[in-house]
Amino acid sequence: MRISDPSRYRRTFLKSLGATAAWLTLGRLGHAAEPTPDGTPATLRQAAGPGLLVGAGVMSRQLDDPQLGPLVAREFNCLTAENEMKPLSVQPEKGRFDYGPADRIVEFVEKHEMKLVGHNLCWHQQSPPWMYQDDAGNPLPREQALVNLRAHIDTVVGHFKGKVIGWDVVNEAISDKGGEYLRDTPARRALGDDYIAKAFEFARAVDPDAQLYYNDYSNENPDKRQKTLRLIRELKDKGVRIDAVGLQCHFQTKYPDAPRILNEAVAAYAAEGVKVMLTELDVDVLPRATGGAEVGTRERTGSNPYKDRLPADVARIQAGYYANVIRVVRQHPGVVTRVTFWGTHDGTSWLNDWPVRGRTNHALLWDRDLKPKPAYGAVLKGLTVSLEPNRRP
Ligand code: G3I
After folding, report:
1. What is the average pLDDT across 156-171?
2. For residues 25 and 190, what is the distance between their CA atoms, to the nearest angstrom?
3. For a substitution probing ligand 1, which of 126, 251, 295 has the most ligand atoms within 8 Å of its CB?
4. Which residue among 71, 100, 240, 247 is buried most deeply as judged by most CB within 10 Å?
């Protein structure tokens, strides 16, 4: 999106500053924020407006925090369970389902008139081994693995039917290796390549009203994008409906070109007829050798340069990065229908423990004292500016 009218840009920018100031005034209190007196949005959910959900990945215990819970209710209109709806969480033992923490999230979203996204039904991480493997670690016979997958999806999708708007049905199934299409996973070894289609079919049968998504990291990049487009086409050719592709968007400040690549990717996915959701957005400021977001990959050591505080210049760079991402979101109205941040304040980010354990990362919109960072202001402004109807691309 280009700013073609400088005076309008100045007006909008000043309004956005007003919105940020309003938020600062509200501080850490949990009030339901009203728009500022001149009508500009005071929170992310107000700024997002109709047609775009703005969400966060959360753990249920965070919602009971007297400061963080109200912030989540005020700022977001959509939640994703960061961990508590994953296969291992909801079915830790065969046939024993545990919905306690996930149901707490359901209760919270209902109370605060938010939406909930189910994450996830099939993933090579955080899934109970027995689902696809025998005791010796060998793949189960296809029929047996199909029974397990179907039983899991029937029960879990059935439990959350009417409570979630959609599911990340399959997570991270595409290979990171050039020249290799699908990732080698326990589910694929047992079931074959059509395990993805089967998972979608099973979920659709249980909850025909839920949106069904394929979710992955680095799938804005050309190689993984091509493979994802292939997957979408193959699903459609089989008559399997897929509603959206989830782009996790675990970005790093050291790759400033990613928003431009994201913009191309959104256009390519839109041309394929699916919606796009930014499902796990964060912007890592720490050095690391590992790209992507494969949780199984670790680095044993790494420097921890910002353990006391995030320097102002780095915070500014990060804010500019977030602004560029939100600009892409607003360039595709009706296509990008959700942006979800993978956590709330910096202390909640998985990046404090990945790929190096125990570092102090600053990947999100609020600092550890729940003060909004420059990144927050940039996101609020990016969402707000683009609400002006004439500025819609
Ligand atoms: O709950 C146990 C706790 O009982 C135990 O004491 C503690 C000891 O390490 O571990 C706790 O479990 C951790 C869990 O998060 C809950 O905090 C796991 O070790 C840890 O591996 C797990 O990490 C999560 C990771 O997925 C693996 O499931 C991260 O929080 C979560 O942010 C991350 O999210 C993934 C998305 O689902 C998919 N895309 C990539 C993204 C980032 O890896």
Report:
1. 98
2. 56
3. 295
4. 247
